[in-house]
Amino acid sequence: MTELTREKALALSRGLKATPKVIARLNATIGDEEAVRWAVAQWELRERAQSKFKRASEYIFTREALEQATREDVAAYHASRFPRGELVADLTAGIGGDLLALARRGPVIGYETDPERAEYAHHNAVTSGHLVQIIAGDCMAHSWPDYAFADPSRRVDGRRTLDVRAFEPDPTVVADRMGHLKLGGLKLTPFLSDRLLSTLGPEIAFVASGDECPEVVVWTGSQAVSSRYAIWGDTGEALAAGGLTSSCDEPMTYLFEAHPAAIRAHALGTICKEFRLVALGNSNGYLTGEQPVMSRWLKTYRLLHAGKGDIRQTKAALKAMGAGTPIIKSRAGIDVEALRKELRSQGSSHPDVVVAVYPVGKSIRHAILERISQEPIRT
Q1: Taking CA 249 as the corner, what is the angle to CA 244 and CA 250, rounded to the nearest 5 degrees?
Q2: Other Cβ atoms within 10 Å of 275 Cβ, number
Q3: Strand partners, 215
Q4: Which positions ≥6 away from 376 have C-beta within 8 Å?
């Protein structure tokens, strides 16, 4: 498949589905079925990539590499940690998610063991107007500059794993080498244990993007600072870790759902101190208070009803409100789908009515809530 054939196939297959009839028709024109199938698949991947890349319709991808690629807002946060004009090594370039962000701030050299991904990363960089050097080889076999970033693969036979010994390259080895640099960043899954993360580096950042905490970055090297925090990838707004000091069993006028990054960073105590809130039961994520709060770290709900985890009582309360089938949120390890079926109403679902389930010791409590906008009373 030549580059010319590939470009022709991309141009003719835009917006088409990979049906046998479409493949046959395009192949009759292009004369290269491999190029046709590749091009049709590229348009499918480009559509999926819109949530990660503004210029996705111009890039080329592999399916697995796209799934692993860093979102642009998060990649911008990674790149912002490195000084402008300094050479940075992207040790695991993939199809170029972090490479592109690093190139916007200065010189970058990329390493990628998969030749196809290395080619695609180069294409995507050139498409974005960046001249970058990409070495199709193992980063561990080369010397690194004073600044480096790595996103080890966390898949074995296409499946995600939490066994760091199966990551490629091994994070423990990468972190050891990064410790001798000025600054190294190691992107990992936030599901790894606190104990393990603390062995890799002194600065641990849980990144918030949308409603998710897609990653943790361990920063190490002489410029890393011993700290633990949650941080928004798009703005750099950070929230330091801080333990909870108080809790209550019954919700007050407002219930708040903390962002996953804030929870994972153990920063709920910091939120409570700033906004005069307390933890709700043993929920590890629900907070409560008497005033609404404006914060990106919180979703705000007004309390409509609170009671024990009695399905009949909760259903009666919902019926009395005319609430319809509610959204179910749980921090109690219950079968959410089973509860949703139990609380199903003849009326239509109301997107602003929520039943929150949370534990208090060994008991379960229900709170019926109404989602409210982030209005401006800030304490």
Answers
A1: 120
A2: 19
A3: 207
A4: 294
DSSP label at 233?
A: T
Give the model confidence (pLDDT) of 149-201 as tens digits: 999 999 887 788 999 999 999 999 999 999 999 999 999 999 999 999 999 99
At 306, list the tokens.
């609170």
**pTM, full prediction:** 0.90
**Nearest-angstrom CA–CA distance, 112 and 117:** 7
Quote the CA–CA distance of 170 and 141 in Å, as a whole number.
13
From residue 44, alpha-carbon distances to 13, 114, 307, 372 in Å are 10, 22, 48, 36
Is the Cβ–Cβ distance between 294 and 375 less than 8 Å? Answer: yes
Identity at 192, one-letter amino acid code: L
Q: Tell me the one-letter amino acid at 354.
A: V
List, as one string, the DSSP characters of 132-177. -EEE-S-GGGS---SEEEE--B-EETTEE---GGGSBS-HHHHHHH
The token duo for 25 is 């028709």
Instruction: Specify whether the CB–CB gap between 102 and 88 falls below 8 A.
Output: yes
Residues 6+ apart with CB under 8 A from 338: none
Give the whole-angstrom CA distance, residue 328 versus residue 73. Answer: 30
Indicate the SS3 state at residue 371: strand
* Radius of gyration of the CA atoms of the chain, in A: 25
Buried b (16+ CB within 10 A) or exposed e, 248-267: eeebbebbbbbbbbbbbbbb
